UniProtKB/TrEMBL annotation:
<protein>
    <submittedName>
        <fullName>Threonine aldolase</fullName>
    </submittedName>
</protein>
<dbReference type="GO" id="GO:0005829">
    <property type="term" value="C:cytosol"/>
</dbReference>
<dbReference type="GO" id="GO:0006545">
    <property type="term" value="P:glycine biosynthetic process"/>
</dbReference>
<dbReference type="InterPro" id="IPR015421">
    <property type="entry name" value="PyrdxlP-dep_Trfase_major"/>
</dbReference>
<comment type="similarity">
    <text>Belongs to the threonine aldolase family.</text>
</comment>
<feature type="domain" description="Aromatic amino acid beta-eliminating lyase/threonine aldolase">
    <location>
        <begin position="47"/>
        <end position="280"/>
    </location>
</feature>
<dbReference type="InterPro" id="IPR001597">
    <property type="entry name" value="ArAA_b-elim_lyase/Thr_aldolase"/>
</dbReference>
<keyword id="KW-0663">Pyridoxal phosphate</keyword>
<dbReference type="InterPro" id="IPR015422">
    <property type="entry name" value="PyrdxlP-dep_Trfase_small"/>
</dbReference>
<dbReference type="Pfam" id="PF01212">
    <property type="entry name" value="Beta_elim_lyase"/>
</dbReference>
<dbReference type="InterPro" id="IPR015424">
    <property type="entry name" value="PyrdxlP-dep_Trfase"/>
</dbReference>
<dbReference type="GO" id="GO:0006567">
    <property type="term" value="P:L-threonine catabolic process"/>
</dbReference>
<dbReference type="GO" id="GO:0008732">
    <property type="term" value="F:L-allo-threonine aldolase activity"/>
</dbReference>
Length: 369
């Protein structure tokens, strides 16, 4: 567990770096306020979801091609509401979901504790479930939830053909389909489809404003008008109808205007970065791995055969000594002796060439000794 002192030292070191490869340099509060200040702030603030909140909801609905969108303070709340609404409509409280999906790993069993839902797993493989696994699931389910991309498996996506087949298999089972699209924004390059084409496959879609768009917080649920109306009622019950939310909403609008158009470029450059990392590590470190080898989005994993604390210490020394940061935090992997870190290729990485990556990786590895 990283102590507060260690965290502050790490963030200070990255903040002082001139070059950062993986997107770990957090904007200061002043920088965040400057983004918000690009909006028209002379108007009255929102009150319980009107004003600028409604503008954001309309913008998201247009981007996704859904009838409506509902703003939520968190994605955890948005998805719980969506899944319990669908359970009421289908009459089945069972959700088919991957065991590595966000509600199963990161939400303290909220689906069952708060919403009374239960989950079943079509597969335990570290990939999206396929159509045959959905057809072969040995009990009824009301909703299939697909996380696009599946973050804890390595930000993995199926092919477009695999995705459409899996959705069709759920329809054959008379189930509705919900997309956990926290990072849906960056899937268009991989699928070769627009956001509306992707969202159209599902009955509802959740998107995040801070994971890829650098917003302060917040999420939205794209859904048919009838479900959106019920979602607003449950949002109120869950405590999500906040008095004023304009700072979060303005930062989300900034992200839609400035970060969303850049995501295809980030995704393309991630392939260059991943290839350079893979080659540099393979030369010097047995059992190293870049996963997936060709990233599906602008995010992917790197695995190395060292304890996390050793890798964190080397990364910190590199940042403090060279003002260059290659990796963020490292965490224990599922295999003993291996550690994993997540790479996010964003604006700070665009200036890095393959040779820059190679040189910086060698400098990092030198500090492991």
């Amino acid at each position: 567990m990283e102590s507060t002192e260690q965290k502050e030292r790490r963030l200070a070191a990255i903040g002082a770096c001139d070059r950062v490869l993986s997107h770990a340099k957090r904007p200061t509060m002043r920088e965040q306020l400057a983004r918000i200040a690009t909006r028209d702030l002379d108007r009255l603030p929102d009150m319980y979801g009107d004003g600028v909140v409604g503008e954001l909801e309309q913008r998201v609905a247009e981007l996704l091609g859904t009838e409506e969108a509902v703003f939520f303070p968190t994605g955890t709340m948005a998805q719980q509401v969506a899944l319990r609404c669908w359970a009421g409509r289908t009459g089945n409280r069972t959700v088919a979901i991957h065991p590595l999906a966000h509600p199963e790993v990161h939400e303290r069993e909220a689906l069952s504790v708060l919403s009374g839902l239960r989950t079943v797993h079509p597969t335990t493989e570290r990939r999206m479930p396929d159509a045959e696994e959905i057809r072969g699931l040995d009990e009824p389910f009301g909703t299939l939830m697909l996380e696009l991309p599946l973050r804890d498996a390595g930000f993995l996506l199926p092919t477009w053909e695999e995705l459409t087949a899996t959705v069709a298999a759920a329809r054959e089972r008379e189930a509705v389909v919900h997309f956990d699209g926290a990072r849906l924004w960056e899937t268009t390059s991989h699928f070769g489809r627009s956001l509306p084409e992707i969202a159209e496959l599902a009955d509802s879609v959740y998107v995040s404003f801070y994971k890829s768009l650098d917003g302060l917080a917040g999420a939205a649920l794209g859904a048919p008008a009838e479900l959106a109306a019920e979602a607003r009622a449950w949002r109120h019950r869950y405590g999500g109808l906040v008095f004023q939310q304009w700072p979060v909403v303005c930062s989300a609008l900034y992200g839609l205007e400035h970060e969303l158009p850049r995501l295809p470029r980030y995704t393309a450059h991630a392939k260059t970065v991943a290839a350079a990392l893979r080659e540099a590590l393979a030369e010097a470190v047995p059992f190293s791995r870049v996963h997936p080898e060709v990233p599906h989005t602008h995010q992917f994993q790197v695995w190395l055969p060292y304890p996390p604390e050793v890798l964190d210490a080397a990364a910190l020394r590199q940042a403090e000594e060279t003002r260059t940061a290659v990796f963020g935090r490292w965490f224990p992997g599922e295999v003993p002796g291996l550690s994993v870190t997540e790479m996010t290729v964003a604006s700070s990485a665009l200036e890095w060439t393959a040779s820059d990556v190679t040189e910086a990786v060698h400098a990092f590895l030198d500090r492991l000794n």
